[in-house]
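2024-03-11 09:14:02 INFO worker-7 job=invfold-0412 stage=load source=structure_tokens
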């Protein structure tokens, strides 16, 4: 039976992991803590490890996983900048990540940006207590701002197109490839 060890497991993920375990006949160990050198013992004999895209998986961790028999590393996030792919591959570990719609993530980012510059936390908080005063709730206009985008992959370039439609000045900064 295939064995997977999942780290950084959130409470909202547990039922999905349990369904996978049942429907796919795999064994999945669920761990709330992050994968570290201290808890690698949990991975001994596992075929695969699943992590969130929060904590780094460097060459030291990749080699330690390979020594314990792990052949596959999956991140439950869109990005995988936290994983040293070359080191994982050199250790014989294949790496994957999940796919999201770049438009969905870009639109969510734009929504959060608009909510921030329009002071929605303050406005919604006041609305919750039926205070509809305007003092301190003046927002800014997106079209009069300059926005920096760090990383212009599929998501970053989609954000840039949305900002362009809003007539916003924006700077694209690509840190990985060293181009701007």
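2024-03-11 09:14:09 INFO worker-7 stage=emit residues=180
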């Amino acid at each position: 039976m295939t064995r997977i060890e999942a780290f950084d497991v959130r409470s909202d993920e547990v039922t999905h992991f349990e369904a996978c375990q049942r429907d796919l006949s795999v064994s999945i160990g669920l761990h709330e803590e992050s994968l570290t050198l201290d808890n690698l013992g949990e991975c001994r004999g596992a075929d695969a490890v699943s992590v969130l895209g929060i904590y780094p998986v460097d060459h030291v961790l990749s080699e330690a996983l390979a020594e314990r028999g792990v052949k596959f590393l999956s991140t439950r996030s869109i990005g995988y900048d936290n994983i040293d792919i070359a080191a994982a591959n050199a250790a014989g570990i294949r790496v994957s990540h999940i796919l999201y719609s770049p438009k969905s993530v870009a639109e969510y980012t734009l929504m959060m940006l608009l909510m921030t510059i329009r002071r929605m936390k303050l406005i919604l908080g006041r609305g919750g207590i039926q205070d509809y005063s305007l003092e301190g709730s003046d927002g800014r206009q997106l079209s009069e701002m300059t926005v920096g985008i760090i990383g212009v992959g599929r998501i970053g370039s989609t954000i840039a197109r949305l900002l362009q439609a809003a007539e916003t000045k924006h700077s694209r900064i690509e840190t990985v490839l060293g181009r701007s």
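2024-03-11 09:14:09 INFO worker-7 stage=report msg="Residues 176-180 have pLDDT under 50 and may be disordered."
2024-03-11 09:14:10 INFO worker-7 job finished
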